[in-house]
């Protein structure tokens, strides 16, 4: 209750301070673009926007129904571009981003500097770009970001999407600059969950595990948490050799997540944390059961079995099976290739020795039979000749 009041007060404060520069009531969305926070905002128009966006995210018609029922009470406070934006969201058909994008393009011709319409254009195009790596959508997003920033300046929404879009293509130094800019945005808007989550992702990718740890102190206490972000936090604690803290985070994930890929990676991490080979094997097998394409878990299971008893042919064969599967999903992994080559050499040696030993025994048996029965036959022949 207290937290909801606190968040509502913060959002209202931001809106009130920034009010003179907004063209429309919904433009404050770019400062608080987390739908869960929109739903608890003190501003009813943002509540309606949050409900429509929840419908967009989940496809649940109940959110749209609630938005439609509340919308008549805010009509007098809406600008024309606000109403147009809500119309697009209310008529959205799940999975049909293209139609919504086309409608927004038409509306932007009438309201070229509309912050909320350009924000929705970014939102819809981002999903298209993320799914299909569509370069046209990429360019449209950057164009709308530029429009928004020219209208109201840099803001959490524009910084967030610009950081994601430019991150993958940049070198290490540029990534450091992107990270620093995101840090500044988080300092100005510490309640923005989206900014905080992206900051954790980028800090992890840059190997800044201590920074992830610092950011996690507040994040783990949020009522709304993403289990994928929690996994990165657990992995950061593991990399800092704080295994007990890492296990606590993993335990939370196992209790709260239903995503098989996240659960698989979590069990894989439990295998890494475990002290004994038997525990490691059990956790890695559970990880593979949840996600048969988890190349890291397959490789770790194969290597653990190989190291646990190198002399056993059965273990070598089973290890080879798991490592071969891992190589299917991660064909450039040099460690897997090297271990496979070692196992192949050992199996070839064992096969050669087994075959050679068998052949040697057979030859000995033949010599024995020939010698024994040959000697008897020679003795009988000699005896007959003496008698004659």
How would you characterize this protein structure?
With 388 residues, the protein is mainly alpha-helical. Among the domains are: 1-116, no CATH class; 292-388, Serine Threonine Protein Phosphatase 5, Tetratricopeptide repeat (Alpha Horseshoe). Helix content is 78%, strand content 0%. It has 19 helices and no strands. It has helices at residues 2-18, 35-39, 44-58, 61-70, 80-90, 97-110, 115-132, 135-152, 156-167, 172-188, 193-205, 209-219, 227-239, 243-256, 260-273, 277-290, 295-308, 313-329, 334-387. The longest helix has 54 residues, at 334-387.
SSE inventory with pairings:
Blueprint: H1 2-18, H2 35-39, H3 44-58, H4 61-70, H5 80-90, H6 97-110, H7 115-132, H8 135-152, H9 156-167, H10 172-188, H11 193-205, H12 209-219, H13 227-239, H14 243-256, H15 260-273, H16 277-290, H17 295-308, H18 313-329, H19 334-387
Helix pairs in contact: 3-4, 5-6, 6-7, 7-8, 8-9, 9-10, 10-11, 11-12, 11-13, 12-13, 13-14, 13-15, 14-15, 15-16, 16-17, 17-18, 18-19
Keyword list:
78% helix, Serine Threonine Protein Phosphatase 5, Tetratricopeptide repeat, 19 helices, Tetratricopeptide repeat protein, membrane, disordered N terminus, 388 residues, mainly alpha, transmembrane helix
């Amino acid at each position: 209750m207290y937290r909801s009041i606190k968040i509502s007060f913060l959002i209202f404060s931001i809106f009130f301070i920034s009010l003179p520069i907004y063209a429309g009531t919904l433009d404050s969305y770019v400062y608080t673009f987390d739908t869960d926070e929109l739903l608890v905002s003190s501003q009813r128009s943002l509540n309606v926007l949050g409900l429509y966006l929840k419908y967009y995210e989940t496809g649940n018609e109940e959110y749209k129904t609630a938005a439609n029922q509340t919308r008549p009470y805010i009509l007098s406070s809406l600008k024309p571009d606000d109403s147009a934006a809500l119309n697009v969201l209310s008529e959205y058909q799940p999975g049909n981003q293209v139609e919504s994008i086309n409608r927004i393009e038409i509306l932007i011709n009438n309201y070229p500097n509309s912050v909320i319409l350009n924000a929705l254009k970014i939102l819809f195009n981002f999903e298209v770009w993320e799914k299909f790596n569509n370069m046209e959508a990429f360019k449209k997003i950057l164009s709308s970001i530029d429009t928004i920033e020219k209208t109201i300046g840099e803001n959490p929404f524009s910084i967030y999407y610009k950081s994601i879009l430019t991150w993958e293509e940049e070198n290490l130094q540029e990534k450091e600059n992107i990270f620093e800019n995101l840090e500044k945005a988080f300092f100005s808007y510490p309640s923005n969950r989206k900014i905080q989550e992206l900051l954790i992702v980028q800090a992890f990718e840059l190997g800044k595990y201590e920074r992830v740890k610092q950011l996690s102190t507040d994040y783990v206490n949020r009522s709304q948490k993403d289990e994928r972000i929690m996994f990165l936090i657990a992995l950061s604690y593991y990399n800092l050799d704080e295994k007990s803290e890492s296990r606590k985070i993993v335990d939370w994930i196992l209790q709260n997540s239903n995503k098989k890929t996240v659960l698989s990676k979590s069990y894989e991490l439990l295998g890494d944390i475990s002290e004994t080979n038997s525990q490691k094997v059990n956790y890695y097998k559970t990880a593979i059961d949840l996600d048969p394409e988890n190349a890291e878990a397959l490789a770790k299971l194969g290597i653990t079995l190989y190291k646990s008893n190198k002399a056993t042919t059965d273990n070598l064969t089973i290890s080879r099976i798991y490592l071969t599967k891992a190589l299917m999903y991660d064909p450039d992994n040099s460690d897997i290739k090297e271990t496979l080559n070692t196992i192949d050499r050992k199996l070839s040696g064992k096969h050669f020795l087994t075959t050679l030993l068998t052949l040697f025994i057979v030859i000995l048996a033949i010599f024995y039979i020939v010698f024994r029965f040959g000697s008897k036959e020679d003795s009988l022949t000699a005896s007959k000749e003496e008698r004659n």
